[in-house]
Amino acid sequence: MPQTTDSDDFTWAPAHAPAMACSCALHSCRLFMGGLLAAGALATWPAFAREGVDVGERSQFSKLASAEQVEAAALQNYSQLKQAARQKDALLPGDHPQVVRLRAIAERLIPFSYEWNPRAREWSWEINVLASKQINAFCMPGGKIAFFTGILQQLQLNDDEVAMVMGHEIAHALREHARERMGKTMATQGAISLGAALLGLGNNARLAADLGGQLLTLRFGREDESEADLVGMELSARAGYDPRAGVSLWQKMAEASKGAPPEFMSTHPSGPTRIKDIQRALPQVEPLYARAPKPTRRFEAPPKG
Predict the structure, then answer these.
(1) Annotation marks residue 169 as catalytic
(2) Handedness of CA 59, 61, 62, 63 (dihedral sign)
(3) Positive/negative CA dihedral, 48, 53, 59, 65
(4) 3-state SS class at 137
């Protein structure tokens, strides 16, 4: 059951888990996540037959970094974020209607996360809402979730759409994409350093090599986003939220992000691509949604500001 530590914080942890201090981005602006992405990921889990989406084996790059270190970094960053938000009076209190709403939705999604990552059972989950016009949300490693009021107000998300966003962000943490990205960065930088030393390349060549390494990671970023879309759909469906909301969500996102860079220069798939992928995967998750108990309480989006 949810445990409220104070009026601002929400921690969700199994009864057997030790009490821990807590700390937990939707795409365009993962503030302070740069350090995490250059710092975090988990071991490969064996493939198994199951009902739902299939996103394949985990990348071997994730074995190059420590999950404990990444989660510790997330805790520190999330704590700093909350502290800064409090100082600016931008951290919504625990009794705010949108905080209550998001924590209720998270409470339904979290139990279905354990199958995807055994570590999730021991995470001290936390859900907070920040007053900001940014259209953004995130879940840091270790289950540290935050939504910005901008995504709720400007997109006027219904509960099913909120669940899709939250499920997507939780999926990033479950699949440990930050840790995987760190492993890839470590491997790429290590190969670049060794190659530059062996070939006697100067600074200009090193800069070019570094840029090439960054461009190589763009494809991995798009794959991570597509994977998170699929896993998030399944989490939402199992929790009783309509996975078809992924289509309306990305239609709203596309409308709100007019003038965004073309897909080939982005770390994220374009809106139309995401919608097609979601529609293609619906048959895999609709039976889960049909059988799932539905939420007994529905919430309203905040007034558009």
Answers:
(1) yes
(2) positive
(3) negative
(4) strand
Residue type, 90: A
In a domain, 3, yes or no: no
Q: 298: pLDDT confidence band, cut at 50, 70 and 90?
A: very high
Residue 18, sorted as left (phi over 0), alpha (psi -120 to 50) or beta, turns out to be beta
Q: Does residue 2 sit within a domain?
A: no
Count structural domains, the chain.
1
Query: 209 is in which domain, residue-wise?
Result: 11-291
User: What is the distance between the alpha carbons of residues 71 and 80, in angstroms, rounded to a whole number?
Assistant: 14
Residue type at 133 in one-letter notation: K
Phi/psi of residue 144, nearest 5 degrees: -95, 100
pLDDT at 197 over 70: no
- 272 is a domain residue: yes
Give per-residue pLDDT as tens, 218-244: 343 778 888 899 999 999 999 999 999
Contact 162, 43 (CB under 8 A): no
- pLDDT for 72 beyond 80: yes
Q: Which of 161, 169, 227, 234 is catalytic?
A: 169
pLDDT at 257: 79
Cα separations (Å) of 183 from 119, 203, 214? 19, 24, 13
Instruction: Classify residue 5: in a domain, yes or no.
Output: no
Q: How confident is the model at residue 43 (pLDDT cuts 50, 70, 90)?
A: very low
